[in-house]
Every structure is written in C-alpha cells, then in structure tokens.
Automatic annotation (TrEMBL):
Keyword Oxidoreductase: yes
Superkingdom per UniProt: Bacteria
Pfam families xrefs: Mannitol_dh, Mannitol_dh_C
Keyword Oxidoreductase listed: yes
The protein's name: Mannitol 2-dehydrogenase
Amino acid sequence: MGTKLNNAALDNLPEGVKGLAYDRAELRPGIIHIGLGNFHRAHQAWYLHRLFQQGQDLDWAIIGAGVRSYDEVQRLKMAPQDYLTTLIELDPSGTSAEIVGSMIDYIPVVEGHGPLIERMAQPDIRIVSMTVTEGGYYLSPSTKAFDPTHPDILQDVATPETPATAFGAILAALRLRRATGTGPFTIQSCDNLPGNGEIMRKVVVSLARLTDPEFADWVADNCSFPNSMVDCIVPATGNRELALVQEFGLDDAVPVTHENFRQWVLEDDFCAGRPAWEDVGATFTNNVHDYEAMKLRILNGGHQVIADPAEILGIETIAEAMQNPLIRGLFRKVTLEEMAPFLRAVPGMTPIEYVDLIEERFANPKIVDTVRRVAFDGSSRHTGALLPVIREAIDAGASIEGLALVQALWARMCEGTREDGSEIEPNDPVWDHLQSTALLAKDDPLKWLEMREIYGDLADNQTFSAAFERHLNMIWDHGVEAALERYLKT
C-alpha cells in the first residue's frame, strides 16, 4: 500500500518524493479557504507552501472549509493524513512528486455553518478565499446580475445567523468581527470569472443589503475584494491518480496531479495584510483584466471549443481530442481568427503566443484531463468565456462563424447522445432544461437561442442566429466531422 501520508511520515518519505523544509508545528493560520478541491491544493496552497519552504510568512497557513456535503467527505479523507497533499507534476519529460503542507486544519461542515462562522470571526484570519466554480455565485447567466430570488439566498435572508451559502457565512462572521472590533478581512475569489473580485464584492454586498443596508455599507467600505487570474490545468482524481501516487510509494487518499505550468495574477488590494506571494512567482498588477481576458477566452473558452465536439465523437481526454486534426484545427482557427484580435498583449506574451502556449498545454499527453470534466457546467462556462467574445465581435463587425459553430456543437452535445448512439450522462446543473431544449432544436435550431437566460438578446442578432442555424442543421444532417471540415475550409 505504500507509506501512509501523515505528519509522522514526513521524516521518512519514499525516495524521490520532495518533502518539507519547514516544521508544520510552527505554522499559524491566516487564511480560510472555502471550496477545497484539487485546483486550490495544486495552485494557491502550493504558492503558500513555496513561501514556507523559504522560511517566510509562517503565520499565513490555510484552514480548509466548505459548505456542501461533499466538502465534509473531503475533510474526512484528509483528516487522517493531517491535511497533507501529494502533488504530482505531469511534465512530458518526466513525472515528479512533492508533499504540500500549507493546510493545517479543516473545519467540520455542518448545517448552518456555525463552526465556520466562529472560526472566520477570529482575529488571526485575515483572508477568506474561495473556489466554488463559475456557477456558484448566484448570478443570472445572461445579465450576470445578482439573483436575490434563489432559494439559497432566500434562506440566508430569512436566517442570517445560520445561512445556507458561503457568502452568508462570510457575512455572519463579519457581523461578529464588527461587533467585537476585530475588523474586516479580505474576501478573495479564486474562480475563473471575469472581474472575479468585483463579482465577489457584488454578491457579498448585495446579500448584506437585503437584510441590513448600513452593515452592507460597512462591508463595502472596509473589506477588500481583489481581482485575480488563476491558471493551472488540474485533472480530477480517480483510480489512475490513486494508482500513480502508489507508484511513488505513498498511500494518499486524495492526491492531486497537475501540469508543469502555473500562473497567478492579482491586484494588491488586501485590507488586513497578505503573504509575499510575489516572492514565489505570483504577479501583482493593476492590470489583471488583460491577463484574465486572455486566459478566460483562450484557455477556458478553448476548453469548451474542444470538449463539446470531443464528447459527441466519444473522445475521452483533452489530449486525445488535440490529436484529432479537425478538433485541433477548430481550436486554432477560432482562437486565432475570432478571439485573439480582441485581446491585448501582456508583458512577455502576445495573444498569438498565448494560443501557441495553450495548444501545447492542451496536447500534453501526461495530463489525463477528461472531456467530461472540462465540459461540465457549460451553462456557466459558455456564458462566462465565449458569449462575451461573440458580443464583442458582433459590435466590431467581425466574423463569428467559428463561435456560432461552437454554440451549435454545445447544443448538439446537450441532446444527450454521441454519434455512436451511446448516452451522454447529465453534466450540467440545468441539464434537464438544456437537454429538452436541445431536442427541440434538432428540428428547429432557433429554439436553442430562445434560452434568454443564457443568450439574452444575442438571439435577435440575424448574423449570429443564421450562422448558428446553418451549423446545427449541418451537424445533424451530416455529422460533426463534416461540419468541422466545412468550417476549416472557409
């Protein structure tokens, strides 16, 4: 079974596994992170771990937290191994492993979130960060406005001291901190959203205003909400990853694999202090937007460009999809011709160079990133990463042929069957609605665009709707490959 990962094993790790240069007993908490999935442990937790390896900022250790039942499942897996994580880097030139020890506790997940609220209210917590996915911010898909009618939000308003959401728990803790004079903390989104700090501010302050406008003003004036861009491809953990960590001689219930690339770009807006992340490779800038737009559109949008046709064709991983010349061609043509022209260069990287970088990263054969994982929650990911590009291209009078084709591929995928007749399992929080609409769109393509909660007034644009209709008819009449071939010849 290998060496059981826990604190006792740190002095006797298997050969080839990089250990800790710091004593975890010296760590003190400074951050609570809500939503402790693989991405956080491969990205933000790793940056902090690197600081600790240098002997810096030992009072900024992480306490994990969550608000969903699966978060408690994760806690129960991690507790016996003292919240340590094995990170396995999947470099095409070789695989390596290291132990990350920057998380020192995990708050029990209970209804009403009393333990989480109490811990966030303590003065040593100076940052509350969050990864809850793009769809976890209670926003209207089409307008991106805060949705005060969602049942979770209504529960937070009705019972603010025992809320349902992470945002409600944050506000409950801030009320306690304000009452005791402890003061505010930074609320940091680490999700793939344009202007994620601004969105976090909107959600938190809007929720507060529903119950106490004066308190909402205090939150808006005193807490900080830095925008950031996060980037690292981190596959889900399954049997392959569990077997891989065993090959390193370790017994880890929740190992994490990741690519050999990371990027973190942040605004320096932290009301209660922060770690010196810039000393370990993070970039602080007032121009997060240009980095963010490039990454959200080319990487996150590019993932959707690839995943939907790959799912329809029964291709299992992103790397395998990139071996398909039609899918790879679709990615390059759409990103270079219809996305890159609306992006600005950032220091050291032009949009065209970034397309080349992402193409190389997607094709990494060591990364077993499933098409299913990447295609999950398309209703949030298409609206966040692709529809804004379509709007911008329409306003500029530029081509949207490829982007319309991508929307048609999404509609075809949501019908729920592959071209070989096998079933595509539900893969979106609103799958039933998407599937029923996709079935209608099979005979009447414009039914798909009538989902105003997703497309808004894009359905009224004749250029876009005509291109979408043409592409979806082509897909149903002649198949995905024929539709891709026709587009690549234009």
